[in-house]
Amino acid sequence: MAEVDVLVIGGGMVGMSLSVALADAGIKTAVVERHAPGKDLDQDFDGRTCSLAHASAMIFEGLGVWPFLAADAGPIYDIRVVDGNFKDGISSLFLHYNHEDVGDDPFGYIVENRVIRSGLAQRAAALKPLKVYAPAAVEELVHDSHGVEAKLNDGKTIKARLAVAAEGKFSPTRDNAGISTRQYDYKQTAIVCSVGHQEPHDGVAVELFLPSGPFAMLPMTGNRMNLVWTETTELAQNYLSLDDGPFLQEVKKRFGDWLGDLELLGPRFSYPLSLQTSNAYTDTRLALIGDAAHVIHPIAGQGLNLGLRDVAVLAEVIVDAHRLGLDVGSGTVLENYENWRRPDVFAMATVTHSLNKLFSNDIAPLRLARDLGLAAVDKAGPLKRLFMRHAMGVVGNLPRLVAGDPL
Ligand SMILES: Cc1cc2nc3c(=O)[nH]c(=O)nc-3n(C[C@H](O)[C@H](O)[C@H](O)COP(=O)(O)OP(=O)(O)OC[C@H]3O[C@@H](n4cnc5c(N)ncnc54)[C@H](O)[C@@H]3O)c2cc1C
After folding, report:
1. Whole-angstrom Cα distance, residue 71 to residue 303?
2. Residue 319 host element (H or E)
3. Domain ranges of the chain
């Protein structure tokens, strides 16, 4: 039987980030992940990139993970938001964010999920207080006022003071604890693929709003862009069933020729989109983090960023309790975590949901209003700067890791 302070269930990007943060602060941590080590690094496991906001880069820096990502992180220097449709073309009214308007740092970085997972695994391997159980699953979990006890499918038992569910959208630990969720099906699917192009992108990210959903072009390292192409689910299935040639033609219709000729790099992936928020983020000796707590539309590339801010806050309240010799799974620790995280999650879920509703249609008066809105925000300096700082994740009561202080 193993005895630790914190048991993390789910070793994805969010669960591993928390495990690294805790172990780095000397807290004994176990993480249970159902996939075998390295499986999530396969080329066909996940074709996504994440746009890591400035705050997330700070968190990874603080955790000692950034050195493993830096060489593969494409900086975002400019963001262009454009409205368009195939009939009228691209609107001349658009919003342009330049990183120099808020400082010297890039807005953030585009990093492949595979690279993030690999960086976390390498950092985790160097931390003595962290033990990874993989492939493994929790078969039975008790979390009550006395403590946490987990029985794994290989017969092992782990005892802890706190359990953390980081199992993503379909978290069984959340459901077994009786924590309900609110859901909204967007009836949209994101098609994800990467393209190579002739001309350099100069760190420009483009979000093109088309009637069935946004088409995002995200600058990776080199002459590569990752595309997140949102369509109604029915249309997405049609595009996904095309052979590479016709599929690339459809991509080109949306991408345009601003970077020269395009080629497809690697396979395509698809993800059905929904909004899902948990009605509570905690239960007795249990905390939810990342997609287990909240899933949002990828329209602004903020889901992982939100999860990493959960990590920064939960790690801070746990570490503070541990340093004072207090119980890391107490109601006070969990209450502090939940109260600190709710406003940020609520704001981001509301903004991404509203943006998708406002832009994913082709109703003429609405289109004019939103184009005028984009142009007005573009001219309104303070409002534009506030939006930029929100996207960078540096607004509100910042945890130490985001502020650049040690945990
Ligand atoms: C198309 C698309 C584009 C996106 N782009 C961005 C972006 O640009 N920027 C951004 O910030 N976010 C983005 N996101 C969101 C981001 O991908 C997610 O928020 C993030 O992956 C959530 O990480 P997680 O670790 O919480 O969950 P997951 O990635 O779902 O990981 C959960 C882990 O738990 C494991 N697990 C599950 N059940 C069990 C179990 N019972 N026992 C043990 N292990 C288990 C799984 O194997 C997995 O490793 C995007 C999402 C989509 C769909």
Report:
1. 23
2. helix 303-323
3. 2-75+109-183+275-361+395-403, 77-107+186-273
| CATH 3.50.50.60 is the classification of domain 2-75+109-183+275-361+395-403 | yes
Domain 77-107+186-273: state its class: alpha beta
Strand 29-32, strand 6-9: pairing: parallel
Q: Which of 28, 62, 39, 258 shows the shortest CA–CA distance to 135?
A: 39
Q: What's the 307 CA to ligand 1 centre distance in angstroms?
A: 9
Q: 338 CA to middle of ligand 1, Å?
A: 20
* Sheet order of strands, 49-53 included: 49-53, 108-112, 74-76
The bridge status of strand 162-165 relative to strand 286-288 is parallel
Q: Which residues line ligand 1 (CB under 6 A)?
A: 9-15, 32-35, 48, 50-51, 137-138, 166-168, 172, 190, 192, 228, 271, 290-291, 298, 301-305, 307
Question: pLDDT in tens for each of the 407 residues of the chain?
Answer: 999 999 999 999 999 999 999 999 999 999 999 999 988 787 788 889 999 998 999 999 999 999 999 999 999 998 888 876 665 555 555 667 677 666 778 889 999 999 999 999 999 999 999 999 999 999 999 999 999 999 999 999 999 999 999 999 999 999 999 999 999 999 999 999 999 999 999 999 998 888 888 899 999 999 999 999 999 999 999 999 999 999 999 999 999 899 999 999 999 999 999 999 999 999 999 999 999 999 999 988 999 999 999 999 999 999 999 999 999 999 999 999 999 999 999 998 998 888 887 777 666 665 666 665 566 556 556 655 666 666 777 777 899 999 888 89
Considering the entire predicted model, what is its pTM? 0.94
